[in-house]
Design a protein that fits this description.
The protein has 159 residues and is α+β, with helices and mostly antiparallel strands. It folds into two domains: 1-41; 47-149, Dimeric alpha+beta barrel (Alpha-Beta Plaits). Helices cover 40% and strands 19% of the residues. It has helices at residues 19-38, 60-71, 75-84, 110-119, 122-132; strands at 47-56, 88-94, 97-105, 135-136, 148-149. It starts with 18 loop residues before the first helix and ends in a 10-residue tail after the last strand. The relative contact order is 0.15.
């Protein structure tokens, strides 16, 4: 019966596809793959993780204030971080020592990123000035320096 109707998609025997249908299916298959190839791939820039440390002042009341501020970071501060390109910022505490882990693009200029973040809003600059009152440098930093970048000495990765 398929010979009588050359443009039909399915022959009278429904388990047999006609040549026309096979061509349509093949064209659709090729179209799908060609469209997948045209999709923009996500940005695959590499990131780096950096770790910094600072001590808090030796005053329990001020330490509590510092921790309370970090329970509700000002929205402008986080918006400044986003604008500057920070991927992730995490703070950890042990007694009066704060450890900050940041994830940034591999080629990041931290000084520039800090300037961009602070320039986002006056509240960003005010936040940094306020937090600075609670912080003191760890042993071995230059006078006036508070945060010290750590050196990685070991890493284990289980792929």
């Amino acid at each position: 019966m398929a010979e009588q109707f050359p443009n039909q998609l399915i022959s009278s025997n429904t388990s047999v596809l006609t040549a026309n249908f096979r061509r349509i299916l093949f064209a659709a298959f090729l179209l799908c793959f060609s469209m997948l190839g045209c999709q923009k791939t996500p940005d695959k820039t590499k990131d780096k993780e950096l770790v910094f440390v600072v001590n808090l002042v030796d005053d329990e009341k001020k330490v509590k204030e510092y921790l309370d501020y970090h329970k509700k970071i000002w929205p402008e501060v986080e918006a400044g971080f986003k604008k500057a390109g920070y991927k992730k910022i995490t703070l950890y505490r042990f007694n009066k020592t704060i450890v900050m882990m940041i994830t940034v693009p591999e080629n990041a200029d931290l000084n520039h990123m800090g300037q961009v973040a602070e320039s986002y809003s006056e509240k960003c600059k005010a936040w940094n000035q306020l937090m600075s009152k609670y912080q003191v440098g760890v042993a071995g930093v230059a006078p006036g320096q508070k945060w010290a970048q750590t050196e990685e000495i070991y890493s284990f990765i289980n792929p």
